[in-house]
Amino acid sequence: MSADSAEQAIRVMVVDDHPMWRDAVERDLQQAGFDVVAVAATGTEALARFKAARPQVVVLDLQIPEPDGVGVTREALAHDPSARVLVLSASGEQADVLEAVKAGATGYLVKSASREELLDAVRRVARGDTVFTPGLAGLVLGEFRRLADPAAATDPMQPQLTERETEVLKMVAKGMSYKQIAERLVLSHRTVQNHVQNTLRKLQMHNRVELTRWAIEQGLDED
Amino acid sequence: MTLANAVVLNLYRADNFQRPVGGVVCVLVMVVWTAVAVWAYAAPRRRTVGLLVADLAVAVALLGVTPLVKGDGFNATVPGFWVAGALLAWAVRYRWVGGLLAAVVLAATDLLVREEVSQANYGNVFLIVIGGPIVGFMCGSLQEMAAERDRAERTAAAAAERARLARAVHDGVLQVLSLVQRRGAELGGEAAELGRLAGEQESRLRTLIRTQERTAERPGEVGGDAVLDLAAELGRLESRAAVTVAAPATPVELPADVVRELCAVVGACLDNVAVHVGPQAPAWVLLEAFADRVELSVRDEGPGIPAGRLEQAAAEGRLGVSESIRGRVADLGGTATLSTGSSGTEWEIVVPVVYGRH
Predict the structure, then answer these.
(1) Dihedral angle at the C-alpha atoms of B178, B180, B181, B184, nearest 10 degrees?
(2) Which residue in chain B is spatially nearest to A93 when comparing CA positions?
(3) Structural domains of chain B in order of their starting residue, each with its CATH number
(4) What pLDDT is recorded for position B175?
(5) Between chains, do A18 and B175 touch, taking CB under 8 Å as contact?
(6) What domains can be seen in chain A, in order of their start residue?
(7) Measured between alpha carbons, how far is B126 from B104 in angstroms, rounded to an integer?
(8) Cα–Cα 20 to 30 A to B220, which of A193, A212, B147, B338?
């Protein structure tokens, strides 16, 4: 931990409309040696300060005043694709979490997660890893199942998971750690991580394709 | 329009007038009164009883003076269809009663001033008497419908606002509970116990909100026996200590009895975990929905069930929990498979389904 703080303080922004929470998360991060470069209480504030402070990681509550967490994720990552978004949500609203992940968030934690879990998640997200909870894995799996439903599958661009990716994601959803999965499947920890990351990348890619197509259909590309 | 009609007709048949000056006066009265009425009716506060009575009185008076200006044995009254204006005003204002009253007054006047009543006269009068109440009735219905729609809109808006407030309040409560849980765990001792309790309540409340939101989205099905969302129902199990439920974001709607039975089966699996591994032992539930089936997994990280123990129990005539789980799933036409080892125990349940699509 001290090595982390001494060598490369990770630049973090905390976005939450509850001051108590914001302060608590900020304090935890600072004590652990992170550089909290900005805090924000609303979507508008978040976007303005994101551009000025250029954080590497945004710790983001989804339930914030307009624009909401999903909008902030989309805008912030459009502005700086190298930034990472870690969703920290108390509400556990499935649909919102899934939308935030589609918009590019690479991590999700519920707020009841412990201090250590949070710090670890911020570090991993900053490294470019994805932080999955079993709940998020279930949502992503469900989304791929939905897209693969024969009734809806008319789209040649349909993202599909490989068998291995499905297997890994399922194990994450069943609560297994990457380490346990690596042991079970006789893979390296890194490979498991890559498989999980790929599932998200496919979903985000599909989302971008969908958005672009929608924009073209609506004639938004002309102006 | 009725004014133009009346004016033109009277001009056209100007030679019918025995007293042309009187006729001109009548037409002028009509023009002026129409202008006054249009202005007066424009503002709701001017639509008084007085105005309506005056309107009707002018119409009646014009009908009444017809024999004087046109002479006895006239064919058409001076105002003609112009009287419809007053009639409609009464119908709109006092519904069918007003329409009927005004129609009867106008009809009676019309008939009284004539020397003889022709078939055509009778027809016109009859139309007025029929038309007045009908227009009045329609106005009444329309107003009631509008009032009802306003009420419905207000109710919906109030419900939405309540839901929004509830979300805001719940969100705040959740935040505080999570914070207490986190800080409590760090402080240790009694605070840790408080934190644990806060954590339990947080998870319960979160589950409740999620379930409610899913139900609120489909108000038509509430209380009905048709379908339930399996994902939401399983989500309730998260209120148990250390249970994590992973499910799709979209509802998984199945016949309500199937949903209840599946939840009961998963509940039994979790009870088993609590008994054999420990009440605080973590367990994970995964729901996956396919086009033709649902797959459920319940996993724990306990020591596993020693090989042969289930068989031994069965041989001793004790069916036990495992057999009960298998039996209930088989009743739904599905299969339940148990895999166990040193890294834990997992139930995999597959049930064919037909979705409650509408």
Answers:
(1) 160
(2) B210
(3) 1-217 (no CATH), 225-358 (3.30.565.10)
(4) 75
(5) yes
(6) 2-131 (3.40.50.2300), 136-222 (1.10.10.10)
(7) 9
(8) B147
